[in-house]
Write a structure and sequence with these properties.
about 270 residues, alpha/beta
Chain lengths: ~270, ~270
Amino acid sequence: MEIKLAQKYGFCFGVKRAIKIAETNKGSVTLGPLIHNPKEIKRLKQEFDVDTQEDMLKTPEKQNVIIRTHGIEKKTKEALREKHFNLIDATCPYVAKPQEIAQKMSDSGYKIIIFGDANHPEVKGVGSYAKDPIIINSLEKLTRIPIPNKIALISQTTAKPQEFSKIASHLAQNCKETRIFNTICSATFENQQAIDELSKKVDIVIVVGGKNSSNTKQLLSIAKKNCNDSYLVEDETELDMTWFDGKKTCGISAGASTPDWIIENVTRVIRQV
Amino acid sequence: MEIKLAQKYGFCFGVKRAIKIAETNKGSVTLGPLIHNPKEIKRLKQEFDVDTQEDMLKTPEKQNVIIRTHGIEKKTKEALREKHFNLIDATCPYVAKPQEIAQKMSDSGYKIIIFGDANHPEVKGVGSYAKDPIIINSLEKLTRIPIPNKIALISQTTAKPQEFSKIASHLAQNCKETRIFNTICSATFENQQAIDELSKKVDIVIVVGGKNSSNTKQLLSIAKKNCNDSYLVEDETELDMTWFDGKKTCGISAGASTPDWIIENVTRVIRQV
């Protein structure tokens, strides 16, 4: 079988960086899972003795504590420092940026509006750097509250650019001064665009990723629009060889939480079909 | 005839302020016409000896020079200072604000985008405070140029809020950091809203203003939508008494460049019908 990989797929820059940090700090503890992929977390435990703890403050002191990709709340970071943990920051730089902006703009007297999901750890972390931030997940919510005079708008890194821009538009008309920081990371959309192009050119598409991962499911749904024979597998054991009957070219992509080694295992098996 | 004045009409705050400044500085010279209304300029000359000069730098030195409502270019202001004129600033405060912003943001490394008419004296003045500003009168123009990383967006005071907001929306999606200063003045739109309401409640509408004034013509066109018997006059001598036959209530509004004394003359004549 001829294999065609999507131009962009799998781990984003921030996740790759976090894993490298974990691998080079054997025996560390991460506060919450480093990334949302149990198989990769298990591998880090087995090969690098990197453990996961949910509540660091209740665990005994340990030398190295890795802060995960989504970042953590300011007060938690401060509490960790007070306990004299050695903090290793694996917060994605694209997440650290809105944290910095939230702090700086809030200190400068701007009201912080975060466009994102209030329950997402990234948004909780970013919001913790501002004084009473307004967190909205839709323009509609913004139309129901009074608009302050000086606003700084930031965004969850995975927010939709079109929605973000609608909010900016509303603020431009209703606020004297708005500072807009486009903190959206393009990785998710690049993966989606890549599978959209790839799936038009192949006979079958395999998407590798967690069945509960929403970004993986989105990739599958985009592929299916262009190629009926599109399937989602968590690893190579889930491949059904009859799928490939009469096919010549297989396109492969992977969700943002799928490590390269799983993708490579899947690719190796398909190549031999 | 019963008279109903529009809730908002005629001179805006900045024009009223400029005329008061001229009246309290007898014998001054204004650089270019203080406002765009020849009858009012003539009155200021006759009653307050306030003269108009087009090119101050070619005229002999004189004590008091009034800067008109639209403001002037920075280099002209500097040249006037060098010539030791006594500058009296009648620049509308709503125009002085974007001038300040342009200077400050340009000095701070932001590329200035002005939404407005490049040939309008206000926009020329504001632009002169920035380093190589980009002046656009439509979103379309913005899509044809490369977008810098740090932008400060300001607006001509009379720009349309909806268009301004579309530009803000485009920048939010395509620029890392955008500072949006809503420098639109609401006076024009308030006059339009007021005549829209008034013209639904009266038998005849008289709009007082220059026949070449675009904002006056806009008022007439809004009135005509609601009341067929709507007329535009430059002063009381243009009133045709047959218009009022069988009418009970007359609504009156005026363009932004129409002085109160002309409106009062018109009103006095109509009241006696």
